[in-house]
Amino acid sequence: QVQLVESGGGLVQPGGSLRLSCAASRSILSINVMGWYRQAPGKQRELVADITRGGFITNYADSVKGRFTISRDNAKNTVYLQMNSLKTEDTAVYYCRAVITNIDPGDYWGQGTQVTVSS
What we know:
By secondary structure, the protein is an all-beta fold. It contains no helices and eleven strands. It starts with a strand and ends with a strand.
């Protein structure tokens, strides 16, 4: 089992920045892939970015490349999403996900954090 707690969402003006955090209840070295997803009203949930256990492989949605950066701090069991140059279309609930594919496999989600980009 893994519990994920997101934080860092809020209201920001276009062009601003936010950093989201996802704290895991266990060592993230035991988690194969961690990622950030988002869901805007009336739309399907979509991948924003993910990162592998070693941190060497990252993947980004085309819409956020060059603006968002995913990173992980293994010592703090936390994954971050640094969001710069925010646009109104980035407004959504952002969710953290943890996927374990080897021993005791599982797929876990956090409760989400609201990000609103508006002037």
